[in-house]
């Protein structure tokens, strides 16, 4: 009988390689993240988000005038189609920003003149438009729901700075704009995470790029994926309201762990040591806390990290460390992003990786790759033998 068969042990496809990729690589044991061969630390230090997006989409760092042309293409694509803005005006103001972003993806598809051109070159151009317009959608919706008019793009501002301008109505300092740009680099890709796999699975059916991206946004909206950074921030604000001193953090952490409650932002499905992105964000959070007067936020987070690792190590779980979400929530808050905009900010970055994976999926080189993803499931439901159950009319059922 089906109930007696061996159950599948790879729940959630953990540890199952489903395809080859040249886009990014994670060494979870050693805390290494690589985009197209480049360490994330070096890209965060030397590159820009736009250049990193070029790398992810094209497979190499731009040469000659390629970066300038790529930047110009993104800048020229910033403006949203008029009917998209008109639609945003009609959405209920209570709508979640991630739902709004996902709803806008099909509208952007309809507006794309190359929607039905599935060549690699056209897909890269579609990716450019989405990279440019995701920030515009998020910023426009935030202002509309607050009774304000969306701001036009400032074509003189770089990508990261322009988003902060359209979101808050204030031109960010050069330092803040740079920090936000680094955040975008850190979140741009992360191999076959849930949202990226959703993108690839959808386009494996030969659906267009926008359909895959819509699936990615939907997957990212879940609290176990992109929503983690906002949950960290909610946790931090609750602690701030309940705890009078950083010295009380140790007792709070011990109570959380002893009662088997999850500390948001600690632990990762892949990393068994420090998340390399978290290290960079920790330093950024400390610096921004001093600049914005939120030193207590950083002090609380740093102490939670310290006490959490100490307590978990004592329980034989030294590999559970802070992940990218632990410090990113405070960083985004100190840059002026509301809590429910933090996951859309994640999407503003990850759109580069999603599109790169979609294009790779569409133009995979492996000859033995299946035409579409079609996993199997182990049926454990009601069983009536080989021929199935006998149907009885409703009047005969007890």
Order of helices and strands: EEEHHHHHHHHHHHHHHHH
CATH H-level superfamily title of the largest domain = Citrate Synthase, domain 1
Termini separation? 25 Å
* Cross-sheet strand order for the largest sheet: 1-2-3
At the first level of CATH, the class of the largest domain is: Mainly Alpha
Could you give the topology of this structure?
Elements: E1 24-27, E2 32-35, E3 38-39, H1 40-46, H2 49-58, H3 66-76, H4 82-90, H5 97-111, H6 120-145, H7 159-168, H8 174-187, H9 194-203, H10 209-220, H11 228-242, H12 249-258, H13 276-292, H14 295-314, H15 324-334, H16 342-362
Antiparallel strand pairs: 1-2, 2-3
Structural write-up:
- By secondary structure, this protein is mainly α.
- It has two domains: 19-225 and 338-362, Citrate Synthase, domain 1 (Orthogonal Bundle), CATH 1.10.580; 228-334, Cytochrome p450-Terp, domain 2, CATH 1.10.230.
- The chain is 55% helix and 3% strand.
- Strands 1-2-3 form a three-stranded antiparallel sheet.
- Helix 6 (120-145) runs antiparallel to helix 16 (342-362) and helix 11 (228-242) crosses helix 15.
- The longest helix has 26 residues, at 120-145.
- It is globular and about 70 Å long.
Features:
Cytochrome p450-Terp, domain 2, Citrate Synthase, domain 1, 398 residues, 16 helices, mainly alpha, 2 domains, 3-stranded antiparallel sheet, single chain, 3 strands
């Amino acid at each position: 009988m089906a109930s007696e068969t061996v159950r599948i042990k790879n729940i959630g496809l953990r540890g199952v390689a489903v395809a080859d990729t040249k886009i990014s690589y994670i060494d979870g044991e050693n805390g290494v993240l690589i985009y197209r061969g480049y360490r994330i630390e070096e890209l965060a230090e030397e590159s820009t988000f736009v250049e990193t997006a070029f790398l992810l989409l094209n497979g190499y760092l731009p040469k000659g005038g390629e970066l300038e042309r790529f930047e110009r293409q993104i800048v020229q694509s910033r403006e949203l189609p008029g009917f998209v803005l008109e639609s945003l005006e009609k959405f209920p103001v209570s709508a979640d920003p991630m739902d709004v972003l996902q709803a806008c993806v099909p509208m952007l598809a309809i507006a794309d003149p190359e929607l039905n051109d599935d060549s690699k070159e056209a897909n890269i151009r579609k990716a450019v438009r989405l990279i440019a317009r995701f920030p515009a959608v998020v910023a426009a919706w935030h202002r509309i729901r607050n009774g304000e008019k969306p701001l036009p793009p400032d074509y003189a501002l770089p990508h990261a700075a322009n988003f902060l301008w359209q979101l808050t109505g204030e031109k960010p300092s050069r330092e803040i704009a740079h920090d936000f740009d680094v955040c975008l680099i850190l979140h741009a890709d992360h191999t076959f995470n849930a949202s990226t796999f959703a993108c690839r699975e959808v386009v494996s059916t030969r659906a267009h790029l926008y359909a895959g991206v819509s699936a990615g946004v939907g997957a990212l909206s879940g609290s176990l994926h992109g929503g983690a950074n906002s949950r960290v921030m909610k946790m931090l604000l609750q602690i701030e309201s309940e705890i009078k001193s950083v010295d009380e953090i140790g007792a709070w952490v011990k109570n959380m762990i002893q009662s088997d409650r999850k500390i948001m932002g600690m632990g990762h499905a892949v990393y068994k040591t420090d998340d390399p992105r978290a290290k960079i964000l920790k330093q950024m959070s400390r610096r921004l806390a001093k600049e914005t007067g939120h030193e207590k936020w950083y002090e609380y987070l740093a102490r939670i990290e310290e006490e959490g690792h100490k307590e978990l190590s004592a329980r034989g779980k030294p590999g559970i460390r802070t992940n990218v979400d632990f410090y990113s929530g405070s960083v985004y808050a100190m840059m002026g992003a509301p809590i429910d905009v933090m996951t859309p900010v994640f999407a503003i970055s990850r759109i580069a990786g999603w599109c790169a994976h979609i294009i790779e999926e569409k133009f995979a080189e492996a000859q033995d790759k299946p035409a579409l993803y079609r996993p199997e499931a182990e049926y454990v439901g009601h069983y009536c033998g080989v021929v199935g159950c006998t149907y009885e009319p409703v009047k005969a059922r007890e």
